[in-house]
Amino acid sequence: MLHSGIDFRFQKKYAMTAIVLKILRTVFRLAKWSLIAIVVVEVVSFVVVVSSNFVLYGSRFEGSRARYDAYALFLHREGPRATAFNRRSGVPSRDRLLWILGGSTTRGSTDDDAKTIPSFLSHDLNRDAEGLCWTVRNFGVNSFNSLLQAKYLQKLLIEESEKPDLVIFLDGANDATYYATFRTPEAHFGYSKVRGIIESYRNRWFGILKPIYAAAYASYTRELLEKITQTMTCIPQNSPELRAFADSVTRRYDFLDRLCRSLGIEFVVFWQPTRWVETAPAAPAIRDMERRGVISADRLPAYAHNMRAISDAVIARAGSLDCFVDFRNVLTSRTSLVYREDGVHFLDEGRELVAKTIAAAIGERKLTGKAK
Asked: What is the average pLDDT value for the chain, to the nearest integer?
């Protein structure tokens, strides 16, 4: 009887051990396959994101090599880009300094410093040998929108010894792109990645896993989901959130205008042309060529809708500001291709035409570089 009792307890203990081991094996298998699934999804997302970056930007990364900046969040490692055709007379009453800020369209999607918008602008402004002598400084930073430019301008006003006579913002594409991606007025390049680093520690109950949460925010899977949101889900045209975004951008420009004028500086925003936001038709032959591209409104209707809706909302609100100029349609008279495949960045002719139109607007608005 004693032996039978021992056998029964042993069998019961063995059975319980077997159950526990079975549960552990099941949990291990679930964890293993979950980890494999996560890795596979991340790898697939990596391939999709990198491939789309090659199509849009010609490299596997969106944006350029950057360095951290306490004011502007990040800046180009190489610093401001050189501008050609600048001219000084040495006579203070004739010399003018112009700062132009924007994203990659301002910095220039070209390897030639002489063919950026700021260089073409300097060339046009300095054509009159007897007129004002302009020095144009190119403070464009790839992927910057008006939010990061506002921070950058304040940094420049604090740190630069020679203050400008005129400040120009060339905006639109990045503001629309990042609002379409993140759906918040605070959106900017890398928004979720930076937010993840800052918020993941205290906003999670198990803060020791901060690196994991931060990595999730920075993952290619999340980036792919953000790109899907940007390009495939439509923004309601009259939504309160879109109106709040347009109000935020308008307040930003109004503040910068008042700030600059308090320092004796003129400030102007040019809402840049892109193929997505034009409201006047280009020549039929040009439209047909553009439609045959890989990236077109026919293939990306939600993206086209979002770019137009966001642009319309900002122009409707900010158009009342004296410092705001609507440039949506300045390239609709084109007789050849002026946009790159993405419909945002320009070919050489496009950059030259935009610069000529800015120079003409400076003349028409009698912007002498001295705030009134």
From this structure: 88
